[in-house]
Amino acid sequence: MKRTTAALLPLLWLALSAHAEVQERLQEQYYDLQVASGESLSRAINQASPIRQNGQIYHAYTRWQVQWNFWWREQRDGRCQIDLTRTRLSATITLPRLGGGDAQQRQRFEQYLGALREHELGHYRIGQAAAAEIDAALLATPEYPSCTELQQQANRRANAVLQRHLEHERRYDRETGHGHSQGARLTE
């Protein structure tokens, strides 16, 4: 009997911890860019980029979204507590893809693309932190006198976490100059 119980404990632990796991999906998509030998790489990317916001042209962009669900258990007296959560992070990174160009342009582009991708992965990591913190906040939501109140408070907590991370993302772009301080800069 002890052996069976000991063998089941790791499985029980896995089952209990699985309810807190964040599911993640990251995709990369590309827009094509053609550059002629001797042409300005920066100008060519600016012309090809579909990423335009508030009158600005960007060479890359990361869009992430956190979705959460939770299930609760209602007691006979109406008190309610969260039993299970499911939090999902979906993200898409949009980057340029070079066609044409001479060897020097392709080399400069590859260096630039590496720094650009690393900057965009920083945005993704902010999304990962948001998803993990939202899931933890939902699981830590205390019991409430009613399920309606629990639902309102849990969503309020999750949205507050989301807003903090959206501000963190804006600050990240300001502090890095949208990746310039990380090497995502073309000088021509």
Automatic annotation (TrEMBL):
- Residue ranges under compositional bias (Basic and acidic residues)? 168-178
**One example GO MF annotation:** peptidase activity
- Tell me which domain of life the UniProt entry assigns to the organism this sequence originates from: Bacteria
* Annotated region (Disordered), positions in chain: 168-188
Q: What InterPro entries is this protein classified in?
A: DUF922
Please provide the Gene Ontology terms (biological process) for this protein.
proteolysis
Question: Among its keywords, does the record have Secreted?
Answer: no
Q: Which Pfam families match?
A: DUF922
Q: Keywords for this entry? A: Hydrolase, Protease, Signal
- Residues annotated as signal peptide: 1-20
Write the protein's name.
Predicted secreted Zn-dependent protease
| Species, as recorded | Pseudomonas sihuiensis
